[in-house]
Backbone:
């Protein structure tokens, strides 16, 4: 068998692993080898629940193989290495399944969401909207552009995906995904790129907040996923339209907003100009001049010290993350006029962590009687989507795809969502006998029983020959393209 290194030992994966918080459960392990030996059958049973959504026998076969490949211990989890090391793997067939397969990933996702409810569903469930980026070298992948890349922390060449996470007291996973297409991709000069990536002709530009709303509204209309809250960072909190749309669903939100967000402690007085008896009767409402709003950070500074309550936000790599919170009823602004009554939630740093922002501000449309502890609990679940990204990238190859088309991106992400949730469900199933078990550790147990190809000397030489031919073909292709540009 050819030697390989576990994913956790690679250069790219090591920093991610450091972000995973340690388990707060006692390290009690009552699993036996027989439990591990049956994990491959668990994956097959899980995959069988989606069988009817794949039209052909070959699609069902490669759907299972793709999930197995994502859960193997490999240096890189793109299609080629997964297919080469899987027992019965086939590079071309797996590429066909992801890039060209005519299976409906929307239907697969709907079934996935139903199963998530079985595993994690609670009436007080929390939806988390967020984006994550995938750095790219070239310019031919769907949606790739120079844009803000959160992974790097600056503007870089990357793709950006919008995701919808779900969290409850039982755990967390991802529910939905959308590839964000920058506005310039809809310009005439990008027509050939759109055609090459097979982007649907009827697709129109949508902002990230519009994509977020599309996913939230879709879940609400289907009525399958149980949730009461929607949370997001400042990108989404800046959109008052999104906040009002969520409020219109009868759901509660907690969204981070800029420190300079303007608010009133009391509902301000407004007026309309007196009608003088001729012309159109004045109807535009105006704010009384002395009723100007205050910045959110100024309201925070004016609070009494007794209003602040210390609380543990989450368990971090270096111990619990503690912050102080306060909440106050305010009136939000809508086009410089008084809008809805909402909660202003304030969080300030405790200690001297330079990576922690001194003050952060949030708005919520929760009912008047909502206690501060509820806001702390719900907001503390926002970090779970970051953990899901880390697990999907570090363990399942979420960011290691080598496909360019619109369909292929969505197919790959759909399979990644299924794989992550399977690991989450498996961890919960084993949790009674191994309470400290994490998602990465669950993957380690599963990977040892997956069907891995065994190499003899002849097959090893054939594999090396295949790689050399593949590398040489890639070299000639790149050389030809670059010479053509001169």
Residues:
């Amino acid at each position: 068998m050819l030697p390989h290194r576990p994913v956790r030992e690679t250069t790219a994966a090591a920093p991610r692993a450091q972000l995973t918080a340690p388990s707060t459960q006692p390290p009690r392990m009552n699993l036996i080898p027989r439990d591990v030996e049956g994990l491959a059958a668990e994956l097959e049973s899980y995959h069988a629940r989606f069988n009817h959504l794949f039209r052909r026998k070959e699609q069902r076969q490669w759907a299972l193989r793709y999930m197995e490949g994502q859960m193997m211990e490999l240096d890189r989890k793109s299609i080629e290495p997964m297919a080469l090391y899987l027992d019965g793997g086939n590079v071309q067939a797996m590429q066909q399944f992801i890039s060209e397969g005519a299976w409906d990933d929307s239907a697969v996702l709907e079934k996935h969401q139903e199963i998530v409810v079985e595993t994690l569903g609670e009436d007080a469930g929390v939806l988390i909207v967020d984006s994550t980026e995938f750095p790219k070298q070239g310019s031919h992948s769907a949606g790739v552009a120079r844009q803000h890349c959160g992974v790097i922390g600056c503007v870089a060449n990357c793709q950006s995906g919008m995701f919808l996470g779900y969290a409850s007291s039982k755990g967390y996973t991802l529910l939905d995904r959308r590839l964000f297409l920058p506005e310039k991709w809809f310009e005439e000069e990008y027509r050939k790129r759109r055609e090459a990536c097979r982007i649907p002709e009827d697709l129109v530009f949508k902002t990230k907040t519009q994509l977020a709303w599309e996913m939230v509204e879709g879940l609400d209309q289907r009525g399958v996923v149980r949730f009461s809250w929607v949370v997001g960072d400042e990108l989404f909190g800046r959109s008052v339209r999104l906040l009002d749309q969520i409020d219109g669903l009868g759901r509660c939100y907690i969204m981070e907003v800029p420190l300079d967000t303007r608010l009133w402690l009391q509902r301000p007085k407004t007026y309309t100009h007196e009608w003088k008896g001729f012309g159109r009767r004045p109807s535009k409402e105006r704010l009384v001049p002395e009723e100007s709003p205050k910045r959110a950070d100024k309201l925070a500074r004016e609070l009494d010290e007794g209003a602040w309550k210390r609380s543990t936000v989450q368990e971090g790599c270096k111990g619990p993350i503690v912050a102080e919170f306060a909440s106050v009823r305010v009136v939000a602004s809508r086009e410089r006029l008084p809008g809805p009554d909402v909660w202003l939630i304030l969080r300030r740093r405790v200690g001297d962590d330079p990576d922690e922002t001194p003050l952060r501000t949030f708005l919520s449309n929760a009912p008047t009687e909502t206690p501060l502890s509820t806001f702390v609990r719900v907001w503390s679940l926002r970090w779970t989507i970051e953990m899901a990204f880390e697990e999907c990238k570090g363990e399942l190859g979420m960011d290691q795809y080598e496909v360019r088309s619109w369909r292929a991106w969505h197919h790959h992400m759909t399979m990644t969502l299924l794989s992550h949730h399977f690991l989450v469900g498996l961890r919960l199933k084993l949790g009674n006998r191994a309470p400290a078990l994490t998602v990465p550790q669950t993957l380690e147990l599963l990977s040892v029983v997956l069907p891995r190809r065994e190499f003899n000397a002849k097959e090893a030489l054939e594999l090396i020959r295949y790689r050399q031919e593949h590398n040489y073909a890639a070299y000639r292709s790149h050389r030809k393209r670059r010479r053509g540009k001169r």
In short: Residues 457-484 form the longest helix (28 residues). Confidence is low (pLDDT under 50) at residues 1-19. Residues 7-233+385-454 form one domain.
